[in-house]
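Sample pair:
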Amino acid sequence: SVDTDDYYFRATTFDNLNQLSLNGAMHPFNRDLFVIGYDYDYHRLRSTYLTKQRALSSNALYSNYTFIFNPWDVNFGLRSDNTSEYGSEISPSAGAAYNFGDSVPAKLRFNISRAFNAAPLLWKYYNLYLSGLDSNYDLKAEKAWCYDAGVGVELWKKLKFDLNGYYADVSDAIAVTTNGSGEYYMKNFEKFRRQGVALNTVF
């Protein structure tokens, strides 16, 4: 059995995150927009829930090109992620926006993208006797196809409304479950779906 004397309520965690981000932009044909960038992260984690320090390094190269065809803006993007713990992933994206013009200060948006979400290191390396949760060294990053559409409206140059709906098909989705011994741990499932609507207002 596990001695749970205050283990669930007392924990100390030290996070050290070093980040480097480089990006640049240009305007081809004095009209379009091209963006290219590089991100690097190095994350070190120490916790009373772990038996030793863990580290995660990741880097990503990305680019995005937006074609300006008034009243339409059409964009295409590509991102390459590489992580020390969760492998590599190529994520494309595409979207379009329709600008109604000055007479109707509103914009209609559509987007589709591939998403890659690396799980926190704790979820992979929990120590059962220190945290009450078991480790899962086979834990993989979540991947998803995401779709969203929305409309933004500006009234009297002071009041802004933004309505957005989203839908995501998530593969290798992560959730807590129990193993054959009844111990809790984080596990990948075949597929989840996430969907919703969000309304934001700014005054």
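Residues 121-125 form the longest helix (5 residues).
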